[in-house]
Amino acid sequence: MPDLPGISHIRAIRAFKKADFWIAHKGKHIVMTNGERIITIPRANQINSYTMAGIVKDAGLSIEEFKRFL
After folding, report:
1. pTM above 0.85, yes or no
2. Nearest by Cα to 16 from 35, 34, 42
3. pLDDT in tens, the chain (70 residues)
4. Contact predicate 21/32, CB 8 Å
5. From residue 29, how far is each of 26, 60, 62 by CA, in Å?
6. Ramachandran category for residue 60: left, alpha or beta (phi over 0 → left; psi -120 to 50 → alpha)
7. How far are the Cα atoms of 27, 53, 54, 59 from residue 50, in angstroms, in the given order?
8. Alpha helices of the chain — where are they, by DSSP H?
């Protein structure tokens, strides 16, 4: 199991902003981009660790890199 338990969508958005992503669209999900990659973050109080690991992978980051942005 990935070592990313209990991350809220707000905390994830802050971390991705530090990784040079910006919000492209807000709705039931938050869509963020860095100009090359597009990621979708669900608005959930606690994002499942497997889901979060997939989002981090889609962003082109490793789990360790993402943890540094938290």
Report:
1. yes
2. 34
3. 567 777 999 999 999 999 999 999 999 999 999 999 999 999 988 999 899 999 999 999 999 999 999 9
4. yes
5. 6, 19, 22
6. left
7. 22, 5, 6, 14
8. 9-18, 49-58, 63-69
